Every structure is written in structure tokens, then in C-alpha cells.
Amino acid sequence: MRLGVGEILVVLALALLFFGPSKLPQLGASLGQALKSFKKGLNSLHDEADVGAAVHAEPKDVAPQLSDSAGSPAERKPAPAIDREKTSPS
Length: 90
Fold this sequence. Notes:
The protein is elongated. It has a domain at 23-52. Helices cover 66% and strands 0% of the residues. It contains four helices and no strands. By secondary structure, it is mostly helical. The longest helix has 32 residues, at 24-55.
């Protein structure tokens, strides 16, 4: 349902009669600010949806990167042994 030129003119005439010519510029400015704020809110929701889609996207396969950075088992050294006699409280 779209408003035609006739309907817009009727709405403007009613606004002029209801609010008067002195309040009409303030009303138009307020309406413009409200629309701007509404569009800004919609854009931020759209941006958040894009970020959310990126977060919920398929995870990348990082297994090759992890195996390359860990090294082979022959290169790894075992942790040093703990002497329990030195660490136990006396």
C-alpha cells in the first residue's frame, strides 16, 4: 500500500490545520531526526547481523597449523623429573 500525491497533500493539509504554521517546521525537523535515528538503528542491527554470521560461520581447519607448530615427537623433550624428597614438607 503506497501513498499517492493526493493522500500526501491531505495529510499535509490536516497537519497544517492541526499543528498550525508555526509548529510545522519544528514537527518536520523532529520527524527527520526520528527517521535518521531509525535508519541508524537499522544499519547497526544489519552490521551486528553480519558480525554474528561471521562468528557462526564454519570454523577454519587449524589442525595443519597446530601440527606444524608443535613439532615432531622426536623433537619434544620430556619435562624434568620432580624430586619428591626435596618438595615434601618436613
